[in-house]
Amino acid sequence: MIFGNPAKIDLAIDSRAINFENPTGARGAGGMAANGRKGAPSRFVDPGEHLVLADIAGPGKIRHIWMTFPPAPPEDMRGLWMEVFYDGAADPSISVPCLDFFGLPHGRAAPYASALTAAQEGRGFNAYFPMPFARRVRVELHHAGSQRTNFYYQIDYTLEPFDPDEGYLHVLFNRENPTVPMRDFVVAAGLSGPGRFLGCVIGVRVLRDGMLWYGEGEFKAFLDSDSDFPTICGTGLEDYACSAFGLGPHAAPFGGVPVHVAPPPPDGQVKAFGSDMPDFVGFYRWHLMDPIIFRTDFTAVIQQIGAVYSRSPEYLDEHYTPAGNGWRELGADFQGSKYAGLWGGLAERRDDYCATAFLYCRHPQPVPRLDPALALADIGLRDYEVDPSA
Fold it and tell me: Per DSSP, what are the bridge partners of residue 141?
């Protein structure tokens, strides 16, 4: 079981919760505002403001983080970001946009549920990552958006002995806008083992270039002494998300696509290919049943490769850089008259990629601090989207 034995009554655990009704998590100190009549469920947070949401003396373990804030344009939704500091460290081991932490890139909320994260009804944001700490943990909130927001949260945690076999959760954000052709986008790098890659949340802003499909790039995991080639190599972007032949909106325990923003198709059917390709896609992948363990170091990357076809191989040569085995006559490989006379194959491409990577490491380590300007660029509402704050 992911979260242990629910029938076990463990008296070594001291159950606590922190929110605005009990900002210290102290026993017998919850709901004291307004004589216990719901005096402090939330508070307003202004642009540029910084809050300490929790400062907990350990040893212990954060079990669940819940947040909510009113719907707003993407730049304001992603403008709320969080940092986590372990054991008195001056630098954070988590520094990411809040929504990305909950599995939702591009500043867009959507209803879904996975084994570790959920956005219930698209507005109750939940994360169930176990977050052990030996001496202390501090959770901070930053507001880089432009609008005042009404913020609610709760951090459920336990005070308990620290298990030296468990790791500290590290979460780091990376974005490349746009990517460089033939240079794989880095999902995670720079942390030292022993450790475990728990998974990632990937966002793609698809840059339209006439291709049929954007998601042929492979996920690769380089473990320890791997150099030119990885130990783990996938077969395509949608395959890494545990789907196949396209990447439409759906949710499952270990992989799914909660964010899929595309113009309304004329026939009402959501498609992944051709003119109906989305503008924004966000998916998650959790390695719970298939753990990825590293001993010294770890790097994960995703290629940017697409698929394209034309009746003229000369047109392909002029407009695209082939990947894989180059161009081929599709009618010779696929049955069906629609492929007759067509040439195509895999092609190098560039898109706008972001990644939120989740890793457990034996010792707390600093991660790159979030650059809000980088996170918020080019994610505005498209003209066919409804303003969530309207």
Answer: 51, 82
Q: Is the pLDDT of residue 194 over 70?
A: yes
Tell me which residue of 131, 132, 129, 110 sits closest to 121, measured CA to CA.
110
* Cα→Cα distances 104→12, 78, 134, 275, 279, Å: 35, 9, 30, 24, 15
Q: Could you give the CA distance from residue 131 to residue 1 in angstroms, rounded to a whole number?
A: 17
Residues 6+ apart with CB under 8 A from 330: 309, 339, 342, 343, 344
**In angstroms, what CA-CA distances link 381 with 24, 262, 274, 352, 388?**
38, 11, 22, 16, 10
372: part of which helix (H) or strand (E)?
helix 372-376
pLDDT of residue 272 exceeding 80:
no
Q: How many CA atoms lie within 13 A of 5 on its CB side?
A: 4
Q: How far is CA 92 from CA 39, 181, 298, 366, in A?
A: 32, 32, 19, 5
The count of other CB atoms within 10 Å of the CB of residue 269 is 8
